[in-house]
């Protein structure tokens, strides 16, 4: 039977990783894979995670299954982290998933179950796996304009015009903060306008929030999501712990389904458990348990928040350094957007040909759409990147 299989497209980021590894140049710079790196190029285990793991090793006496939706304490901790008191807890169904990607996948399957004809509106551009999963499931994708290659900011008027074509039963996928791949985010006034459109059209919002704490702060990065869910009758939220807890390989995420009334929560909760059962039965617990311990222990939480803030400030510092260096080298302020973007990524807004030139002539590795991982830089590699960008004619 396997002779009928067709070769699937290679993952472009993973292919870039291999090209980087094969490059012998000492000055090469990896800006492809979306992981945080410190000044030494290491993706460290956070202090609070190590401390929680030590406690867990000493006290855990069983590896028996958790429930189909994971440990309820993890759901409570994550709902509080993301939503705080924006909505009543008894309206929120939640299920642990294998990473944020698992939460996104389960959300799309839930949409398909609830409304087989639903269209999902996604920003242009968006995280490629959004579209890949939607296409695999056979769900119609409707792109909405988002990024302006000229200003390197949000093309907001075009975005609103496109979202106004959504209908009741459709889903609008939004990035909660630190837009991937562009780094360009909506401001508070723009979020208010998006909420107005959602209320007018009746479309259901789905928020993918994978970088809480990487942008403007832990609470600030959740503000738009909280405002949104408080205003609309229903919403889906896919949240990831990979980045802000640094537990990438532990695959720790959660899907939340918010209903207008508490009586709908049980149905939603049962559906989330059913979907987990069909896909992987019980979700991974190790990372979820660490997150729960950290969020519920005042000392661990304080240390985690302090280290997360150091990570955030480090990325902001790299953004400012790169923007200033480019201004110095080019004599132009056209790269000021780099200091305004937030999160791990920025999109240069240049051509694939220029991206190829940066790689071939300068050893600068970034995704073909010119998305670069700011967290892959350090103070020594910023000048190398800046010079390459200017020399390549970006």
Written overview of the protein:
This protein is α/β, with parallel strands linked by helices and 394 residues long. The strands form four sheets. The chain has a seven-stranded mixed sheet with strand order 2-10-9-8-7-3-4, sandwiched between helices. It has a two-stranded parallel ribbon with strand order 1-12. Helix 2 runs antiparallel to helix 11 and helix 7 runs parallel beside helix 8. The longest helix is centred in the last third of the chain and has 33 residues. The mean pLDDT is 96.
* Strand order of the biggest β-sheet: 2-10-9-8-7-3-4
Question: What is the structural class?
Answer: alpha/beta
Number of DSSP E strands = 13
> What low-confidence regions span 5 or more consecutive residues with pLDDT below 50?
none
N-to-C span: 49 Å
Radius of gyration: 21 Å
Order of helices and strands: HEHHEHEHEEEHEHEHEEHHHHEHEEH
Number of helices: 14
Instruction: Give the proportion of residues in helices.
Output: 40-55%
Shape: globular
How many strands, what sense, and barrel or not for the largest sheet?
Answer: 7 strands, mixed
The quaternary structure here is single chain
The average pLDDT is 96
Beta-strand residue fraction? 5-15%
């Amino acid at each position: 039977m396997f002779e009928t299989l067709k070769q699937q497209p290679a993952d472009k980021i993973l292919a870039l990783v291999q090209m980087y590894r094969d490059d012998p140049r000492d000055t090469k710079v990896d800006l492809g894979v979306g992981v945080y790196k410190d000044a030494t190029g290491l993706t460290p285990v956070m202090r609070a995670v190590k401390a929680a793991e030590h406690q867990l090793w000493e006290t855990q006496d069983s590896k028996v299954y958790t429930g189909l939706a994971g440990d309820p304490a993890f759901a409570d901790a994550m709902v509080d982290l993301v939503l705080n008191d924006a909505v009543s807890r008894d309206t929120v169904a939640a299920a642990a998933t294998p990473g944020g990607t698992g939460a996104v996948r389960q959300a799309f399957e839930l949409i398909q179950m609830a409304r087989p004809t639903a269209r999902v509106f996604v920003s242009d551009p968006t995280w490629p796996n959004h579209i890949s999963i939607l296409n695999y499931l056979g769900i119609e994708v409707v792109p909405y304009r988002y990024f302006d290659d000229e200003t390197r900011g949000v093309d907001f008027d075009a975005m609103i015009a496109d979202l106004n074509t959504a209908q009741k039963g459709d889903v609008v996928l939004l990035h909660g903060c630190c837009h991937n791949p562009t780094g360009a985010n909506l401001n508070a006034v723009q979020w208010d306008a998006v909420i107005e459109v959602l209320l007018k059209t009746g479309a259901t919002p789905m928020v993918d929030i994978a970088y809480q704490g990487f942008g403007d702060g832990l609470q600030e990065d959740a503000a738009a999501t909280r405002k949104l869910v408080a205003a609309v009758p229903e919403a889906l939220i896919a949240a990831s712990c990979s980045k802000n807890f640094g537990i990438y390989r532990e695959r720790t995420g959660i899907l939340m389904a918010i209903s207008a009334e508490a009586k709908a929560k049980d149905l939603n909760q049962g559906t989330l458990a059913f979907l987990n059962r069909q896909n992987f039965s019980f979700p991974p617990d190790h990372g979820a348990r660490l997150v729960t311990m950290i969020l519920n222990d005042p000392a661990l939480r304080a240390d985690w928040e302090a280290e997360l803030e150091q990570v955030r400030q480090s990325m902001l510092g790299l953004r400012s350094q790169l923007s200033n260096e480019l201004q110095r080298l080019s004599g132009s302020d056209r790269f000021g957007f780099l200091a305004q973007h937030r999160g791990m990524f920025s999109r240069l807004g240049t051509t694939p040909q220029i991206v190829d030139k940066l790689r071939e002539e300068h050893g600068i590795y970034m995704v073909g759409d010119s998305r670069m991982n700011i967290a892959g830089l350090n103070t020594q590699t910023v000048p190398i990147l800046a010079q390459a960008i200017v020399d390549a004619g970006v």
